[in-house]
Design brief:
Order of helices and strands: HHHH
Shape: elongated
Structural class: mainly alpha
Helix content: over 70%
Radius of gyration: 16 Å
Number of strands: 0
Number of helices: 4
Strand content: under 5%
Distance between the termini: 25 Å
């Protein structure tokens, strides 16, 4: 019925989102990807990321900001 069709559509949308996210992560410069993953997945604080990667705090902030903007843009382009 209609509910099954809606679930199937949601699954297709989710798969498309995962593919798009994977592609945008793969295309990020390594530092931006590292900072984003350490923050979003490992849940490290900015200072911990700076220490782990041996980079200044300001670099962590700017890399995270750029990475998030690219991910957002990729997801918005899909809608």
């Amino acid at each position: 019925g209609p509910a099954d069709e809606e679930r199937a559509e949601e699954r297709v949308d989710a798969q498309r989102t995962v593919r798009r996210l994977a592609a945008v992560l793969a295309s990020l410069p390594r530092r931006q990807r590292d900072v984003l993953l350490l923050h979003a997945v490992a849940e490290l604080e900015y200072a911990e990321i700076a220490a782990a990667l041996g980079i200044p705090l300001g670099t962590v902030r700017s890399a995270l900001h750029r990475a998030r903007a690219k991910v957002r843009a990729a997801l918005e382009a899909q809608e």
